[in-house]
């Protein structure tokens, strides 16, 4: 087990950490899949409202590659398909039967011996057919990977230090077999490529109990545990840029799918944030309704529900659902009236990366709100963004290059190394949407590459 | 409801898109932000944002300039009273300084902020708070006898030509306050240089804008007799070490006190607003060049060459320029390596201009403006070097 030290990044000292308690939630009345929040895909529906579905029925496929199918996280009836602007599919809601067994599809189970005897092609075909390809994603665009080309490296990040995400010790508990099996699967997919599995250096329980499966421990603060950060610090050549990655819980789901022959529908979700009524972990259904994770009636209207971490997640209404990739729900104060004389407040409780506020010497965890804090201004080159960037980018220069349309320039500056961690946008005193701009520029470039290869 | 809140709420309708003063909305926003924080919430990730705003960032600089401003008022009065041979009483001295300096500050804000409003209104941008720093810096680097119309012209040139024509704060490549100062320096040399502009006249019913003659330390140093040393020449002019360090000598209004500049620079470094790399680079550059001149000095060369390099930091506006002008993040380079080099070259140029150019006694103004122009080039060199070290990812 090698130690990797990553110096840059930033730790939000946010109050509302979820406790280690983990509660099993009962099956909800309805679950949903949110195609809108699966990056890059172009869904083509395979069901209509009113259709009966089982757990593991095909709901939609990706127009770009019809083998990339997405299967249902619940059985029952498709009760609602919600469209947004420009016909984007926001959610596919499935009502579970009120009584009786929830119908489920079964797949061929694969044990360790069968896996060893399987060829890579058969394994890939099995995963594609099982609708499990979504668990794998490819850097730098975080899109689904091309099944035919073995990756140079597969990164397995067990950890996520974004506030707030599940503690890996909790979701790994009792699943050592799945972890080991999943890593075998990845090695098969990678062929000669390296499989790198890592966790944070202070996750002692995980290191003690699952250390034999790990290749690296990462010392650092958010986003040191992100696969893109780790890849940046590990890579030795440009051929490794297109590495694949998989999140810890997704790896367990992959292993469970193969070993049991059933579409996996459970995952551990952390609920945190200063406004969350109950800050703890839950074992919930995939695509569970948010109302099940937090008593939304207890929230007054001034809270924001964020599916995923506070830096990368998406805001959702109280009747929303968990996303396919998201493993946490964070609830923060949404805003409130403008503070009187805010400019002259010494800021003992104002969270900031800079040293301008007295909060720098306040050891307490602070309440973060969703205020923008100020108006948008031109960049003043304070370089806070470069100070936090975990992959040594100069975000403000890339931002200017994107504005000027200098594609070559921003690629040379390393845009594709961007982790999309959100820290540059967070620290910017001019309130420039840096990360959003980078994600959009990357997506546009990915589209261009795809068009070129056709 | 808070009466101020109420006032803004009742006036807001005039500035909304269909209101009578809709075009002045940036002005309304700027005024509102003086009293209130923002109520806007984020629309996308990251959901929380840092409490730091450009407004706060710039305000910290202004706060650290206030001691220089008040000291400047006192010192203007002190020098005038000394020259007039009046008893040195604090009250009347400060009042004279206040009477002299305050109009310049007000003019600077009136015109600087006025231009910013004009340009933001036309562009439909918000007012950027950088202009408040410019308007505070500008009067502090003027001679106290500057005519009001020249101050108005200078700040207008600095804000409009130094900044607004390029797109406003953040897009300018020259320090606007220095641009305005340099404009006056070259356009009205008689009012900006020589021995007669640094001290206002006091007493005897004369108008305060009339000046008396007193050589500044930089002039004394440059014209030290060949058979003496600079330090003895300064000493006989009454500028001993502590007078220079604390700034009790005729000079620009607020730029004379090295002591206050050290405090200001230390606080700005501590709170992370000023780059310590630039400041240390400046100081190293001045000391290195000063020391190099010491080595080159022969028995027949002018005494300025063999002056202890630390004196360059004590005299004139060097300390002020280092603390408040070179650290302007917009006109300085962005990368850390370039910041060291930028500072160092400013220091070197300052000493060279001071020592070898008899027309410009104060070198730091031109040194900073000159290096402002080269800052993008320095950045470019550092960026290319670093990009070459990255593993390409395309």
From TrEMBL, chain A:
The keyword Ligase does not apply. InterPro entries: 4Fe4S_Fe-S-bd, 4Fe4S_Fe_S_CS, NqrA, NQRA_2nd, NqrA_C_domain, NQRA_N. Residues 368-400, 409-437 form the 4Fe-4S ferredoxin-type domain. SUPFAM superfamilies: alpha-helical ferredoxin. The keyword NADP does not apply. Its EC number is 7.2.1.1. It catalyses: a ubiquinone + n Na(+)(in) + NADH + H(+) = a ubiquinol + n Na(+)(out) + NAD(+). NQR complex catalyzes the reduction of ubiquinone-1 to ubiquinol by two successive reactions, coupled with the transport of Na(+) ions from the cytoplasm to the periplasm. NqrA to NqrE are probably involved in the second step, the conversion of ubisemiquinone to ubiquinol. Belongs to the NqrA family. This is Na(+)-translocating NADH-quinone reductase subunit A.
From TrEMBL, chain B:
The keyword RNA-binding does not apply. Its cofactor is FMN. The chain crosses the membrane at residues 57-74, 94-115, 127-142, 253-271, 278-297, 309-327, 339-357, 363-383. Its EC number is 7.2.1.1. It is found in: Cell membrane. NQR complex catalyzes the reduction of ubiquinone-1 to ubiquinol by two successive reactions, coupled with the transport of Na(+) ions from the cytoplasm to the periplasm. NqrA to NqrE are probably involved in the second step, the conversion of ubisemiquinone to ubiquinol. Belongs to the NqrB/RnfD family. HAMAP family: NqrB. This is Na(+)-translocating NADH-quinone reductase subunit B. It comes from Desulfatitalea alkaliphila. The gene is nqrB.
